[in-house]
Hints:
- This protein is α+β, with helices and mostly antiparallel strands.
- It has one domain: paralog of FGE (formylglycine-generating enzyme) (Alpha-Beta Complex), CATH 3.90.1580.10.
- The chain is 14% helix and 17% strand.
- The strands form four sheets. A five-stranded mixed β-sheet has the order 1-12-11-10-13. Strands 2-3-6-14-9 form a five-stranded antiparallel β-sheet.
- The longest helix is centred in the middle third of the chain and has 15 residues, at 164-178.
Amino acid sequence: MTIRRALILSLALVGGSPAAAEGPLPLSEFTDCEGCPVMVAVPTGTFVMGATPEEEAMPFIAYNVPHELPRREVTISRPFAIGKFEVTMAEFDLFVRETGTEVGGICSIRLAESGPLAGKVTGTLHPDSAQFSQSPYLTYITDGSYLQPGLPVTETQPAVCVSRNEIKAYLDWLTEKTGRTYRLPSEAEWEYAARAGTDTVAFWGDDLSKACDYANFGDSGSGYQAGMMAPCSEAIRPDWTAEIGSYESNAWGLHDMLGNVQEMVEDCWHESYQGAPSDGSAWTKSGCQLFVARGGDYELLYVSMRAAERLFWGYVPEAGDPQGPDAAFNSRSNVAGFRVAADLE
């Protein structure tokens, strides 16, 4: 498993701008079954996807911006809904209990550098963990799952240590159970929902120093190295993932679109948006071994709390991985989870 990450020791200087406008009125919410995710029906429309000119000028993120260009208009014309929150441990557990599906296996665990969780991990360490881990930041356990994500977890924290194959099985179960097509959002749908009608660096504006009100990241009170560069300390200050809905939502009522856990989307990884579809559909290709993840996570820099930030997830041969070429579909990590989308037609 390889995740493209922000530079841990980068210092960013981010200028402020007025906060985003209030945006649309509260949107329609629904659930299709007891224990199913709460869904928000988002409006169709056109938005500009990719890094803003302000981001192109920001120091210390320039290495990532080329992957977020060229900036382009995308039209979302097909009605869809997206999860109000990241899928929780309890929601994923309902699927496992109802279907008897066997889940779990090797999972990479992000280790804290300081604080009460410094160097701590639960589970069975992989015998070759030192060979594959990015010490001292990652280690591997062999019995990882949404129930055993390497650190203590509650029912309302995001489901992590779940593989792409396990996520697909969950989505198939939701579809069969409800009669509505559930799926991963496309990358364009995800960014459209994250921006919620705004055109700024983050949905709250261009000033990333305000991230502590809106996102769970490596803040100055965290045990992660990125906290040394953080401009603030979150009031909630979870040790790792936060319970869903702990931070302020965007204008469309969606929580944790930035921070908490990286969210897998349907698209294959491409080095830029050159040639990307403009209709909001997923950009896929045959034999894909690298997929896109969006939103950043609980241990990354505050400058990763950007609507345009892209990460990749999957198999890179030269990086090494305990699962080999199947890693794209079977890898698990406790920094990554997912949010569901559903077709409304």
